[in-house]
Amino acid sequence: MNTIETHTLELIGEDPSNPDVFVDTMDGMKPIRDSINDAIEEISMLTGCYSEKYYLSLRKNRNFYRLDFSFGSCAWITDVWLVSQKCRLEQTDLIKLVNYNPRWLYDNGPCRSYFQVGLNNIGVWPAPASDTDMLEISIVTIPDRYEESTDRIKLRRNWEMAAAHYATGEYYASRGDAKTAIYHHNNYLKKMGIDVQYPVSAETINQFQTQKEPWAKATG
Amino acid sequence: MWKDNREKIRRFLRDPDGNIWTDGFLLRAFNDSQVDFNKTVGFLESVEALRVPPMYQMSYLFEWEWRYVDHDGKEYKALKYHQQSPGYSCSFKWETQQLGLTTGSETEEGTAFIHPFEGFMVTNANSPIPIWFPYDFSTVKFIAWDKEPIDFITKKEIESIDSSWKTNSGTPEYYYREDISSNELYLYPKPSSPNWGDIEGDANDGQVLFTDDFSPDAEVGTIIDVVGSSDNENNGVATDVIENEDNVLLVYEGQPTDIQDRDSESDYPRFLQKYIEHATLEQAYSANTDGRIGSLKDYWQWRKELGSGLVKKFKWKRFADRDLRLVSKDGGYRSSRRGPRLPAEYPNI
Q1: What span, in angstroms and rounded, lies between the C-alpha atoms of B215 and B11?
Q2: Domain tally, chain B
Q3: Three-class HEC string of chain B
Q4: I need a surface site. Which of A44, A146, B87, B100 has the fewest CB within 10 A?
Q5: Is A91's CB within 8 Å of B293's CB?
Q6: What is the mean pLDDT of chain A?
Q7: Contact residues for B316 (Cβ-Cβ < 8 A; gap 6+)
Q8: Are residue B20 and residue B91 in the same domain, yes or no?
Q9: Quick one: residue B42, left, alpha or beta (phi over 0 = left, psi -120 to 50 = alpha)?
Q10: What is the β-pairing status of strands B59-60 and B76-77?
């Protein structure tokens, strides 16, 4: 059982050393681990806290490449380095390319720019003139979901408690206690600095007030 | 997989055995939520090379045959179904005149075909040959034929400018669609010399499925699924090279395909599927069942809306590496082309 799991169990009133419900097995901890994995994915998605480097061998006259990840999922590209030319590629998009040169697919030579299509497709311009170039791509990655307590947790330590509150909120939601679920999820949002508010008391309506009288005042 | 999504949804519904919400209801709600999620945040984009000649798995002639074909968005209704006398499918127009008991004999231009790839095997196909968009296609972002961008044109415009539009062939400059439900596009004019594959199977099959090296005939264009190489997903990053020569290159926005059964996988990556699960939970708790609970419906609705906001933020992060410049109205385009660079060890002057 890792730190996040231990803290979550304590928040929901379980004894981590002798749990009644969430025993320390893959099946026993599955509901909690599902929630913690969801939290890690969301935190990675928002903060870009985990990235990987990929080395993409370019092929002659090919503009588009589909990347299949064996670990994690591609989120967004932060940096592309053309190894042979020792320079970074500029990020561009299809609109700019078509505007610059409608026949951009004919161009070839050392790559100068790249663009992302969807999550795991990358396009480069111009198309490589040979099979010898290589791109070093830094990609913010959503880590794979962990399954066992000994698996590595790809999360900064100071966000671990936020993940615990996320999981605790979902535990209460699964017990039908929406109010406590909201409390813990708001705790998670505050710890992550995500500026979203939700009134604990739904009947309160916040509004601006003015001291002005609603009708025009006689002047002079 | 859907079975994992369903298990999680049922845990939050506290209905593991399906006593209140049926599997069918949850599946429909999930599919519906996927569509809503796509409308709100989009996200599904892809790039594909469409095969020319196209590969249809099945063609059919009569409506009743449709139920026996694979419904993968690639089925093609061939020849000319005679609407006025159901039960007949005609190869040529003069046959319909015989059915109509008239004495005319309309001269038919060209040769009839049943499977679209056959249309490319003859020099004068008598009707436009369809090519299909990907099954999850929604809208075009960029489309090119053999590296040249092509434009959309309406059939009305083509008919206005070209009396031989059905049989004309050449280099495609436009594409048009008959309707949006069939997922088909037509190139205009028809490609005059599509190249036939000589890889993996009979050269006369006309279908390039895959090749086992990186240097196929340049004239054979399709998505090359590379096999027999260490460049696969088990060894880090795999590269699926997308070929655009003599093909339709399509960059498009997609729409999620419906999940069919317990082993189906959503088109969205796993880390986005939880927001669809939240929307499904909202639908389930708002349904008029014994399990209807207003506070939980509100909670999952909040989680759904919160998730939509977060995903929108996430989408903008994809432009984090973009260099943006403000230019005046008449500033014009400034090339970002770099000049030659001196080696790092070169001394500063």
Answers
A1: 51
A2: 2
A3: CHHHHHHHHHHHHCCCCCCCCCHHHHHHHHHHHHHHHHHHHCCCEEEEEECCCCCCCCEECCHHHHHHCCCCCCCEECCEECCCCCCCEECCHHHHHHHCCCCCCCCCCCECCCCHHHHHHCCCECCCCEEECCCCEEEEEEEEECCEECEECCHHHHHHHCCCCCCCEECCCEEECCCCCCCEEEEECEECCCCCCCCCCCHHHCCCCCECCCCCCCCCCCECCECCCCCCHHHCCEEEEECCCCCEEEEEEECCCCCCCCCCCCCCCHHHHHHHHHHHHHHHHHCCCCCCCHHHHHHHHHHHHHHHHHHHHHHHHCCCCCCCCCCCCCCCCCCCCCCCCCCCCCCCC
A4: B87
A5: no
A6: 87
A7: none
A8: no
A9: left
A10: parallel
Q: Which residues of A touch B333 (CB under 8 A)?
A: 99-100
Does some domain include residue B266? yes
Q: Are B96 and B83 in contact (CB under 8 A)?
A: no
B287 plus B157 within the same structural domain: no
More confident residue, B247 or B263: B263
Q: How far is A75 from chain B (nearest CA, A)?
A: 8
* Structure token pair of residue B138: 């929604």
Q: Are residues B108 and B36 in the same domain?
A: no
Question: Which residues of B fall within a CB distance of 8 Å from A185?
Answer: 303
Tens of pLDDT, residue by residue over A123-170, are 999 989 888 889 999 999 999 999 988 888 988 888 999 999 999 999
- pLDDT of B92 reads 83
Question: Domain ranges in chain A?
Answer: 1-47, 51-142
Same domain, B99 and B159: yes
Check CB contact under 8 Å for A178 and B296: yes
Gap between the Cα atoms of B69 and B55, Å rounded: 14
| CA dist list (Å): A177 to A154, B4, B296, B299 | 30, 23, 8, 10
Q: State which residue of chain A sits closest to B274, comparing Cα positions.
A: A38
Tell me: do B57 and B172 sit in the same domain.
yes
Give the H/E segment covering residue A111. Answer: none
Are B38 and B58 found together in one domain?
A: no
Structural domain boundaries, residue B80: 52-129+151-191
Contact B178, B186 (CB under 8 A): yes
pTM of the predicted model, to two decimals? 0.81
Provide the pLDDT confidence category of residue A9 given band limits of 50, 70 and 90: very high
Same domain, B296 and B274: yes
Distance from CA of B206 to the nearest CA of A (A): 23
Measured between beta carbons, the chain A residues lying within 8 angstroms of B46 are 117-118, 121
Distance to chain A for B242, nearest Cα, Å? 6
CB contact under 8 A, B321 and A98: no
Interatomic CA distance for residues A138 and A75, integer angstroms: 11
Looking at residue B336, its amino acid is S
Q: Is A183 helix (H, G, I), strand (E, B) or coil?
A: helix
> Which amino acid appears at position B245 of this protein?
E
**Cα–Cα distance for residue pair B348/A63, rounded to 1 Å:** 36
Distance in Å, alpha carbon of A18 to nearest chain B alpha carbon: 23
Tokens matching residue A172: 């209460």
